[in-house]
Amino acid sequence: MIRYALSCDHGHEFEGWFSESADFDRQVEGGLLTCPTCGSATVTKMLMAPSVSTARGKEALTTLAMDAVRKQAIDKLKEAVAAIKATTEDVGGQFPEEARKIHYGEADARGIIGQATPAEARALIEEGIEIAPLPTLPDDIH
After folding, report:
1. Alpha helices in 9-94, H assignment, sequence order
2. How many domains does the chain have?
3. Residues 76, 121 within the same domain
4. Can you give the pLDDT at residue 136?
5. How many CB atoms lie within 10 A of CB 35?
6. Is 78 domain-assigned?
7. Which DSSP state fits 135?
8. Are residues 62 and 122 both part of a single domain?
9. Is-contact 77 135, C-beta < 8 A?
10. Is 136 contained in some domain?
């Protein structure tokens, strides 16, 4: 679609939308294009600045697209974390001790989640106990 700024011979300004430039010409020649204010059929195109794609416009579109991708990724992470939480036992602050018991066969093997300090997590990894952090996700992103 092409948008033209138009004016009539009485100075009224308005705009018109056309599928192509030739449509404007055909409508004027056929008397089909009239001023919406006074009804005059003497309508001409006004000088207009062209619509140019700018870096700022592209940046805004990129930001919108990235926001959508970010939201989708966070939604997927939320689903994964919820699935993990639904199938594991939360042992809270006893996580390091319980992970060791499971690893060394002192407790039944099962999935657990809980809290560990960075030092506790490092010690578990150094002992060969496989652990992985669950991401903390913002609750306010929808």
Report:
1. 21-29, 55-86
2. 2
3. yes
4. 78
5. 19
6. yes
7. P
8. yes
9. yes
10. no
Residues 100 and 74 in one domain: yes
The answer to whether the CB of 24 falls within 8 A of the CB of 45 is yes
Alpha-carbon separation of residue 50 from 46, 55, 124, 128 (angstroms): 12, 15, 64, 65
Extended beta strands in the chain, E state: 2-8, 13-18, 43-45, 89-92, 112-114
Structural domain span for residue 111: 55-126
**pLDDT one-digit tens code per residue, 83-98:** 999 999 999 999 999 9
How far apart CA 121 and CA 130 sit, in angstroms, is 10
Would you say residue 92 lies in a domain? yes
Beta pairing class for 89-92 and 43-45:
unpaired
CA distance 42 to 23: 16
Predicted local distance difference test score (pLDDT) of residue 53: 58
Token digits of residue 13: 């300004």
- Ranges of the chain whose pLDDT falls below 70: 48-62, 139-142
What type of residue sits at position 47? L
61 and 114 together in one domain? yes
Residue 88 lies in a domain: yes
